[in-house]
């Protein structure tokens, strides 16, 4: 089995209105796949289809090499972890009690709770009721719950949406560690920086269709305008091409000691998204 | 379909911890006991008033506690997370009903003790209570599933509370044969008349139609709850 997820010509319509239209992609084991799109583009719908919460209208969806409907069996369900778009935590219960329930449902030793709380940096707060936590802490509890049973494949629906940079960083650190340990991650996000930082592959979703799919590296090269930006010590900035004239100019500035900084003009994923869709990611 | 006692116990334990911190539910448990105390002070000859404390306990605790626990799981999207875990629909349904059933039973017994209702035939009476528990926990599940929020359960549930507990008063109020006839098919009405028959030292022959009525209600409400669960469990 080469791919953890294979989606082919997927269509999903709600009351004849298409939410996803002709979507195809594959995700290899060990990859972090970014599903990037603005609000309403179909990210949550995709996550729900991939986790067998919603049935697609047409096309084929395979998870672990089998039709996605096979996920409805508890043994298969144990292989995936899900962080949905709303926390789904029991507010009145403590962090520990929330996780204890899921330890028992997944048949995981309760010792794992301390381990996973350590990972998301919440061990000191384990006796705190969820309703007293900040949004960022709640999201880290949700992540802890999603990885409690060490799933092979993790689905994250906008995991850091509306979080402060510190909480965002903490979550990214956990995700990188999980990925290094072999977890495949499907990450839906409208945060292009997040996709750039974490993903091996990104798909740009616009109105239910994938308009671009590649590694962040290749996307930047492909959509870059092949120029270099130079700042001189006298405060002016100059743009030169990647050709002989450009190289001569740079050499001259360096020889004359005028050069201050030099940057290639690679677009960010956000720039590319706007270029392709005429629409910003927010 | 898998079946694991460990998972069912986990859900019950979670609900129990949650319940102790939920003042709304604690009030729903205490209210019927208060009514029982009040009714025991009023002397009445109306036979349907006799079983009023029991019916109140069944409706207020059985149906409403279950409805608000179910609606809250849906409102907070925790039901979705449970469904995404290895717990099956059946395990979740049983887990969520057992605790309400036990609490309701305790409140029913408490109401009987407080109001001093005389229970002549423990065997048949237990069957009647068991059937009533099934009916009202299922009705509670249905109310919880069709309400979008916990607050809505009171609005959706109120007509049911009034019809089921004050049915006989309504029928005398409207003085219409059709309404009186319909109300005589309510399980609470059948519970009351069976209790009166038992107290008049009647046996199975006197209450068999009442038992059949309640049995049909129990089967019907479980089927309806299961059907609505299939349709509504994943709603926002
Ligand atoms: N249950 C539903 N019924 C009808 N339309 C829906 C439903 N869920 C999502 N949609 C529609 O599908 C589109 C994609 O929604 P969604 O997947 O939630 O987007 P995102 O998560 O990217 O914000 C939106 O136009 C939304 O209104
Ligand atoms: Mg979404």
TrEMBL record, chain A:
Keywords: ATP-binding, Cell membrane, Membrane, Nucleotide-binding, Translocase, Transport. This is ABC transporter ATP-binding protein. GO terms for molecular function: ATP binding; ATP hydrolysis activity. It comes from Paenibacillus sambharensis. It comes from the Bacteria. Its main location: membrane. InterPro entries: AAA+_ATPase (IPR003593), ABC_transporter-like_ATP-bd (IPR003439), ABC_transporter-like_CS (IPR017871), ABC_transporter_ATP-binding (IPR050763), P-loop_NTPase (IPR027417). PANTHER family: ABC TRANSPORTER ATP-BINDING PROTEIN, ABC TRANSPORTER, ATP-BINDING PROTEIN. It is found in: Cell membrane. GO terms for cellular component: plasma membrane.
UniProtKB/TrEMBL annotation, chain B:
It comes from Paenibacillus sambharensis. One of its GO terms (cellular component) is membrane. The keyword Ribosomal protein does not apply. This is ABC transporter permease. It is a multi-pass membrane protein. The chain crosses the membrane at residues 21-40, 52-71, 92-117, 123-146, 158-180, 211-229. It is found in: Membrane. GO terms for molecular function: ABC-type transporter activity. Residues 58-225 form the ABC-2 type transporter transmembrane domain. It comes from the Bacteria. Keywords: Membrane, Transmembrane, Transmembrane helix. Its main location: membrane.
